[in-house]
Every structure is written in C-alpha cells, then in structure tokens.
Amino acid sequence: MPRSHVDSVNSAVPMFFLYGEPRQTVSPRFLHLETLEARSRPGDWTIRPHTHADLHHLFLIVTGAGNMQADGQVLPFAAPCLLTMPLGIVHGFSWEPETQGHVLTLSEGYLKDLRARAPSLGALSPLRSHFRAPTWRGSVPPWPRSGANSPGPLRGTRRPWTPIC
Question: Which pTM was predicted?
Fold first, then answer.
C-alpha cells in the first residue's frame, strides 16, 4: 500500500487529534469550533509545528496578526484574514498576543459529505487542491481588494494552504 504524505512526515513532528491531544479515531461527521485563544494563550501565543491525519482547519482571524508555518514556509498575515489548512500539512503559528479569531476543524469525511450535498462548496474540494495563496508579502495585496480588474486573493502560486487576507 502506498504511503501518504501524513505517513511520511518526520517522526519528530507530532501528530495530534486536536492540538495537544493524543491521536484518536476521527468520527466521519466530526466538527469542532473554538476560539483561537483557547489553545494559543496557554502556549504563549505559539502553536508548535504539528500535523493531523484526518482533520482540516479554517482559521478566521478577526483582530491581530502572526506568522503561519506550513510545510517549511513562513507566511505573515494580518486580520481580517481566513487561513485554510488541509489535513496532513505540517503547520504551526506564532500569533501576536491577544489575536482574536476562531478555528473550525472538520473531518475529511464531513468535508466530503458537505461537498456532495452542496456542489457550490466545490472550492473546498479538497481544501488543498483549489485555493491559491496570495503572491504578496505582508498583509496588504498590491491590487485593489474589489473591482472587475482585481485578480483577487485566489490567484497566484498554487499551495495547499492559503491565507486570504
């Protein structure tokens, strides 16, 4: 049987159920919502690099800023921002203190079910294949945020994780 990206992750990188929790079997309809602060404040606003076998994340950053580490790259971002993180990607964060937002975590099974019932969610099919990361550095893109000629945040270099700021 071929090894997946998750199976080949360096054993020094921890694999969690939810950050800091031992790995466990994920329910096919697993959905979890919590504040960003819940897991970030106890770690002095740092989430160390880790991965998940069966869970995707959507981070809604309302206030604050930080750096996202994803598969060895560091991307700065500032609120308002939406960050996507598909399963199997090694990721971590360093947040500015008091950054506010929410983390929606859902299982691969739940995401597949949502896409089957709502074809308009095809943009999440899967998270890693359709989103495109911005090509700018910093929190402000070099184009207007709206208008017919704006390339928008979904253009640029294809990456499996995406800050949309």
Answer: 0.72
